Amino acid sequence: MALNAAGEAVFGFKTNLIASVTVLTVLLRDHGASERLIGAIWSIEAAGALLPQILGLYLFHSYRRRRRDLILWHIVIMLPILLVMAGLTAAAGHLGPGAYRWGMLLCHAYYWVCIGIVNAAWGDFIASLFPVTIRGTVTGLAMGAASLAGAVGALAAGRLIRGYPGHLTFAGLYGAAWVLGTLSLCLWIPVNDQVLQALPSTPRPSFRQSAGHFAHSLSDGNFRAFLLTRVLSGLGFCVAPFIALRYMAPEGGNLPGGTVVSCGAAMTLGFCLASLVLGPLGDRWGHRIGIVVGISTQMVTLGALLGISGLTGCLLAYAGTGICNACGAVSGSNMIFETCPHEHRMAHISVGNLLIGAPMAFAAVLAGLVAEAFSLATVFRICLALSTAALLWCLLRVREPRTLQARPG
User: Fold this and answer.
1) How far apart are CA 143 and CA 48, in angstroms?
2) Which residues contact 277 (CB under 8 A, 6 or more apart)?
3) Cα dist from 332 to 220, 261, 306, 384, whole Å
4) Residue 354 belongs to some domain of the structure
5) 3-state SS string over 162-202?
6) Sign of the alpha-carbon dihedral angle for 122, 128, 132, 136
7) For residue 409, is it within any domain?
8) Domain extent at residue 78
9) Per-residue pLDDT tens over the stretch 256-302
10) Among residues 3, 250, 304, 371, which one has the fewest Cβ atoms lying within 10 Å of its Cβ?
11) Helix (H, G, I), strand (E, B), or coil: what is residue 73?
């Protein structure tokens, strides 16, 4: 548990040095990015993190090699792209704005597809190490450590951007992120995974076997109700990249880019506090309550985006976003674990995230188009309506998995 929390803390610091909703958004906006392109950042993350997970069933099928393969995937395949982004940013003055924007967006897409491929395998790895009675606490502690360290990362990034404006500062942030990300993965090397080592070797699943597990998962009515809740709530909160645009605009207070990046620390602090509360709360009372809290919070956050401008509004919007993200990361992930009606949890995680992620691939891009055609306020109002529908559906149709028949866990 300690190594898991420490590794997540270092990774969280690294992530928020180059947070896409603040640092990358400001960087691309400075190079002429439109609302549509800014929306593509969120769509890339949502689609990349969720859609490719089926590939992980075949790449990380062995429990005995799971820890080694996951560490190597991050260090060798995924993290080096941050060095490429550092190089692109350092050379931005010699590239056309269009070439730079698309180069960074393609690298960002590569990074998140790599995350997506490993996502279900990592979740199953962590879930396999800890019993269901403390799994929420473990998740909350790890996410809380990541976000607390991430708040420091966001403040550091904002301070550097304000104090040393220019391409080289952003390039340095991406280079530092590569170093820290690599270091964080090394902290998982000594993790005790004897529980997994004791499991028998498993052959790579066939497509027919995987399809059978997917069908078994989707035959569960409560799981389907949970998925629809997550889809509606995701569509209702595809606004994270637009928060920076809202408060950098004259009607939002005309805040400088460095200030907006520093305000991103409120997002990570909100994530931290919510994670530390939601984990133990879910272990005791069930994780459905965290889903309800998350949707309610995003409705309040959308209200702040519509009605509160300036520094106060920016801080409130990012803090609310952090709480919403924590509800998805802690409560949402544990709900997926606990709704599994069969023994192949990795397949269950994959099909759930696939169906949640598919609509997210287009949500923020469409929101960007609406913002260009009408206004950001119109986007926020549509999202508020979708969030209301998500809350009502969750309250009426989703049941706490622990009150149903016994699950594999």
Assistant:
1) 20
2) 140
3) 17, 27, 27, 20
4) yes
5) HHCCCHHHHHHHHHHHHHHHHHHHHCCCCCCCHHHHCCCCC
6) negative
7) no
8) 2-403
9) 988 988 898 898 889 888 888 888 898 888 999 999 999 999 999 99
10) 250
11) helix
CB 283 within 8 Å of CB 135:
yes
Q: Are 257 and 248 in contact (CB under 8 A)?
A: yes
Place of tokens 């990046």: 261
How confident is the model over 140-192, as pLDDT tens digits?
888 888 888 888 888 899 889 888 888 899 999 999 999 999 999 999 999 88
Number of independent structural domains in the chain: 1
Phi, psi of 378 (to 5 degrees): -65, -40
Rounded CA separation 36/18 (Å): 20
Nearest partner of 86 among 181, 152, 21, judged by Cα = 181
Alpha-carbon torsion, ordered 310, 247, 278, 147, to 10 deg: -110
Q: 290, 5, 282, 342: which is closest to 132 by C-alpha?
A: 282
Q: Which of 260, 61, 264 is nearest to 153 (CA)?
A: 264
DSSP reduced 3-state for 387: helix
Question: Is position 36 within any domain?
Answer: yes
Give helix 81-90 / helix 167-186 axis angle, nearest 10°. 170
Kindly report the CATH number assigned to the domain that includes residue 94.
1.20.1250.20
Residues 267/325, Cβ–Cβ less than 8 Å = yes
408 belongs to a structural domain: no
What is the distance, to the nearest Å, from the Cα of residue 40 to the centroid of all Cα atoms in its chain? 15
**Identity of the residue numbered 330:** V
